[in-house]
Amino acid sequence: MDTAAFETDLSLFKYDNLEQLPAEYRALDAEERTERIEAAREELGDDVVVLGHNYQRREIIEHADFIGDSYQLSKEAANADADYVVFGGVTFMAESADVITDDDQSVILPSMEASCPMAGMAEALQVDAAWADITAAAPDEDVVPITYMNSYADLKAFCAEQGGLVCTSSNAHRAFEWALERGDKVLFLPDKHLGENTAHRLGIADATVEWDPWDPDGKDADEVADADVVLWDGYCQVHERFTTDHVAQVREDHPDVNVVVHPECRREVVEAADVVGSTSTITQTIEDADPGETWAIGTEIHLTNHLQRWHPEVEVVALCGDACMDCNAMRQIDPNYLAWVLEELVAGRERNVVEVAPEEQELAQVALDRMLEV
Ligand code: 13P
Ligand code: SF4
What we know:
- The chain is an alpha/beta fold.
- The chain has three domains: 11-116 and 330-358, 3-Layer(aba) Sandwich (Rossmann fold), CATH 3.40.50.10800; 119-232, Rossmann fold (3-Layer(aba) Sandwich); 240-323, NadA-like (Rossmann fold).
- Helices cover 46% and strands 14% of the residues.
- It has 19 helices and 13 strands.
- The chain has helices at residues 3-9, 23-26, 30-44, 58-61, 70-79, 91-100, 124-137, 153-161, 172-182, 192-201, 221-226, 237-240, 244-253, 267-272, 279-288, 301-310, 328-331, 335-346, 358-373, and strands at 48-53, 66-68, 84-88, 106-108, 143-148, 165-167, 185-189, 208-211, 229-232, 258-261, 275-276, 294-298, 315-318.
- The strands form three sheets. Strands 6-5-7-9-8 form a five-stranded parallel β-sheet, with helices on both faces. A four-stranded parallel β-sheet has the order 2-1-3-4, with helices on both faces. Strands 11-10-12-13 form a four-stranded parallel β-sheet, sandwiched between helices.
């Protein structure tokens, strides 16, 4: 593999307009920061909308106009009339927002370092190379690529170009059905756990094969030819951490506990849980819980903490206790960055704008539109 060529075009590094936080903002204390964020918001009025993913820290969430999962936030971005969409989330979410907002709207990611490591596990160039091998292994079959929302815009564009689409954790099963009505085989990227959990839901788990893009020998062509679903070997380290031992332990510690997990968790963890779903399903589950119920949550720790705060009537526990992780990418959105980008907007300067290249915009839009159809 010619790695030099890859390094110049990796999606992870294509935003070279990364700007560091000025020293003045690094020293802000919490009270002054909150006052300045509120003053800037007041000044900007309807010109700005602030979106906060469920995994953002409290100091971002409390300034958000909308809080939600990645799918809900892209819909809020699409509906926004504001000139500026400030996205408390990670690069792939801001890219999707840029694709679906109008050309005269700017999408701002307060810190350009907020890149989801799982999205980086399936670079479009790398997928392009694997595509040649996978389609060669099954020359008489139509392979339809599906990429999870957690991927860069160039991979979304690649999927559209090859007749595929995007999905989120809440509609992956419908995306699989859509693809298998139009083709013979699905290539699912980049999260193997969401792919496997979806194949189980559809009763086709026996016909899956994993594709390790880092294995120089690739996969046996016969295995690929026999499979209905080829799972790219990517994963989220925050969710892969959960094990069935955690579920067993929480059930021992809290005999009446219910367990809800995100579908990025391993198959056996999902099987051991009571409810599985996106971050909005997790939120809704706790909202719907009766007072006094106990729920263990298997997802990023900030959401668990928010739910504890928002629903004191429910006992909310973290599925693996102190071992539950926060998402390093989400954590890059520091509230001091939020203060900075908002005050810069007041001064008429746009910082850390995420702009998908025009040649990718159109195709990525097709892939996202197909998702909205399913
Ligand atoms: P949701 O789409 O469920 O919000 O999840 C996004 C994500 O990054 C999960 O790790
Ligand atoms: Fe990516 Fe996992 Fe963070 Fe979600 S929790 S943004 S999948 S690293």
